[in-house]
Here is the input.
Amino acid sequence: MSFPPLEALNLQLNALDAQGLRRVRRHVESVCQPHLVVDGEALLAFNSNDYLGLAAHPLVVEALREGASLYGAGSGTSHLISGHSQAHQRLEEWLSIMFSSFVPSVRVLSVSTGYMANLGVLTALADSSKGDITFFSDALNHASLIDGIRLTREPFQVYRHADVADLSLRLSSCQSGTKVVVTDGVFSMDGDIAPLTDLLSLCEQHGAWLLVDDAHGFGVLGNSGAGALEHFNLRSAQLIYMGTLGKAAGVSGAFIAAHEHVIEWMVQRSRPYIYTTASAPALAHALLTSLRLISGEEGRRRRAHLQTLIEQLSTAPIPANWQRMVSSTAIQPLVIGSNQAVLQASADLKAQGIWISAIRAPTVPVNSARLRITLSASHSTQDVHRLVQAMSAESFL
Ligand SMILES: *Cc1c(COP(=O)(O)O)cnc(C)c1O
Here is the structure.
């Protein structure tokens, strides 16, 4: 090799190996559910965000097939050209009804991924402010929120994780005409829920928007599965809600629910929304079935079972030198510390047929490498029991 940029890349890749930071993708050969075949090996997995087990639900799978017959495999072009199908429209209308209790004059925009939804709403807000805007971002926010704020090239402040007092001081001393507080609803790597009631009253006091990324709450929290806003019983025109549809909803995609003016502005001006091909209408069609399941009896049953599993795991013993994070959600992280130690723990569990991914920096802070256990309604109590047994093995004592 004598092309210097390639040599430089190779050196940096080798450095990742030395730090235990090289990431590898495994090849899953079976349907999305806890009992997987991975590179030919049978494993019990605890790392999917398919919290309700809908990804492999027969009715959702059948609806996807039906959607493909009705609309074809793709959308052909962007929403503003001719890619906005009747299925997308129905999905948005269903979600609008679901969110009408939480945001007055609500309208919903369906977007192809949560990452794009965050880029889309953040840049649209910045674009409406004529350069007079400041973002306030929780220290543990998801990468897509951070990247969305960066893309605006507008000023931002990072407040201490879930610290309402710190945020209050920052809002008080900010003169910007538009203020936007940005937070995960359920924090993706810690599993704790943001103090949304206090955050919203602070935002109302300061005339700020509150953007809630509820990727891990939608479908899971709230009596009807509407997520964090339902969980806390919130209602405000200042709320902007981002929910994803590839996690608990089991399919793919995302949406923004907000006052109709916010949504109409996004349709007019949000570049990450406008300049991309609409998702396959068949996905939206499948999502209609998924949403019916989420808000109906089956959803309630699955959420109740998930809650049983959360209690089972969060009260079980863990190895003495691991630290359990305080979490009441399906995300139950165990902090181990160093990259090498977490990789070793992950490998030891794998030797017992259990697959939990090792999460390292930069996804989480340095020296807080962890096993991020996620539970799903498609796990059985026996599955969780197997995990607890595996963690009590010789190698972890
Ligand atoms: C997964 C996730 C996203 C991105 O959603 P995708 O639909 O997977 O692009 C955004 N925010 C949070 C907190 C997430 O966990």
About this structure: The mean pLDDT is 96. The pocket of pyridoxal-5'-phosphate is lined by residues 113-115, 118, 142, 144, 184, 188, 213, 215-216, 244, 246, 254 (CB under 6 Å).
